[in-house]
Amino acid sequence: MLIKTTTGKTVWTLVLSLILLLSVIAVVPSFGAVNADDRDAVFESFDIGFDPADPKEPRDVTIGWELGEGAENVEEIRISVDNESSDSINLFKPNGTDVPNPFTVSTADENETADIVVENLTADTLTLKVPVGHCDRVDGAQAFAYDGDGEPIGSPATLPELSCGPANVSETFAVSIEKYNESVIEGEHVNVTAEIENTGEVEGSQDIRFLADENRVDSLKNLTLSENQNETVSFSYETNESNVPELEIAVESDDDIANRTIAVTQVEPAFFAVTIEEMSSEIAAGETLDVDVQVENTGDDNGTQNVTLADFDGDIVDTKTDIELAPDEATNVSLNWSTEAPDTGTGNVTVRSENDTDTGTVEIREPAVESITATLNDTDLEEGEETFVTVEATFTDGSKLNVTDNATYTSLDPDVATVTTNGTVLAETEGTVEIEAEFENRTDTDTLVVQASDSGSSDSDDDGSETDDSGSSDSGSDGSGSSDSDQDDSETDDSGSDDHESSDSDEDGSMGDDSGSGDTEGDADESVDPDTREDHRSPVIVSPVIGWLLLVPLLTTRDWSLTS
């Protein structure tokens, strides 16, 4: 029994222990669940907001929460702002903040948290400030609930990813190109003017870059613009051969880019185009050919060149040196060729610059008569005397030629003097006359003065001037007034009649005179018609011996005729 009694007690003890163990097991899970439900219901919402502000000023921090039904025993809330870096975070009350309940704020300590302690729970929103530069240090936040004994109640509310910066609020630099060169020549500058405007909500600073064919060639550092402020910027770029035929330019900020396409043409060096504008098509050898030429620089650069004129054979006959022209500038020059007799013919003359040529055709005739000179052999004559005209032509090549036999003659006053076709001039009456010669449409004149002749005194002088060996004068000086024609008649009268005794007497006297036969011959010459005789003026000198030989037969014949 004792054993039985002992066994019964042991069994009973085991049963009681099992019941107690089961009770503990049942109670423990039931308490944790409730407690968990209480903690989960402490915070229905938790939020921290950072309001936009000037980046140079502290930002506003707004903390809000809402407690649930399980917060009956909560007497304190502690809010922790987390910072994963080693830098501290400062939170402080704004000046003049009025909240219905006291709270304290602590700086991030070695535990990398900044705590905000709110007591009595009469407020559900707090407004704080975060200093400049501290905002970026905030990485997250948690909210904890505690009872009056400082024991935590429920689970903390967490914000694992928290950004202090304002969402989608920044500067925005818009770019627009206002002015640029649409086309340039290689080597010229492209000038670009752009406007940069901050269309964002805050002030900002950015670099503005200038690109040429996607390569940065210039930039403007740290351009600072307030909200809605704009500024004009300028850039310049010198083009080169690699930019031909097109250049892409761009102006860009961190937020925007504006671009344009510019045509770049290759540089054309100076090109001197020459054009013959005026030139004679026909000249005579010896004349000067004048060639008027226009010279124009059709290139893209300034230039200096010579322009030449070449003859039929390509030989340079004239040069204009150092002609300076800017692009699209033109000038006129005159080139000359002084031709000569060997240049006769038809051919092309050539005007040439370093870049261009032009030709013109010209005919060069035989040398032409430029002028003639008419010269009278004697410009003073008496009535009945004659002279002749000599004509000399001067040609365009400078040569001279006697053209007397080919010229034509005209007396401008035939009453004073006449002129024959061969240029012999006969004085007619007293006066002054111009004798004109013409050759190849060129004319010239010479002046002749004709004086009156005294025929009586002339005969007397002829008769009286002859004396015989004894010094006696010619019987013609006796004043009988017999004319030369009377003497001729008496000499040619074969019958020897003495109808004119004075004439016979004159004859007898003249026969005795050593020079009587000479007078007779002279009278006979003067009785010939001047128009029919030629101009033979060569003097004949007769020696005394020959004179006597000719005179003796005449005297003998004369004496015979008288005696018979």
Write structural notes for this entry:
The model is unreliable at 1-7, 21-40, 98-102, 456-542 and 557-564 (pLDDT under 50). The protein contains six helices and 33 strands. It has six domains: 1-37; 43-159, Immunoglobulin-like (Sandwich); 173-265, Immunoglobulins (Immunoglobulin-like); 272-365, Immunoglobulins (Immunoglobulin-like, Sandwich), CATH 2.60.40; 369-451, Immunoglobulin-like; 455-563, no CATH class. The chain has a five-stranded antiparallel β-sheet with strand order 4-5-3-7-8. The chain has a five-stranded mixed β-sheet with strand order 10-16-15-12-13, with no helix packed on it. A five-stranded mixed β-sheet has the order 18-24-23-20-21, with no helix packed on it. A hairpin with an 8-residue loop joins strand 1 (43-50) and strand 2. It has helices spanning 2-40, 455-464, 484-492, 501-512, 516-526, 544-563, and strands at 43-50, 59-67, 76-82, 103-105, 113-119, 125-130, 140-146, 152-159, 173-179, 183-185, 189-198, 204-212, 215-225, 230-238, 246-252, 257-265, 272-279, 282-284, 288-297, 303-310, 316-325, 330-338, 345-352, 357-365, 369-376, 380-382, 386-395, 400-402, 408-411, 417-419, 424-427, 431-439, 442-451. It is rod-shaped and about 200 Å long. The chain is of the alpha+beta class and 564 residues long.
Strand order of the largest sheet: 4-5-3-7-8
Residue-averaged pLDDT: 75
Helix content: 10-25%
Which structural class do you get from the secondary structure elements?
alpha+beta
- What is the count of helical runs? 6
- Name the CATH class of the largest domain: Mainly Beta
Low-confidence runs of at least 5 consecutive residues = 1-7, 21-40, 98-102, 456-542, 557-564
Strand element count: 33
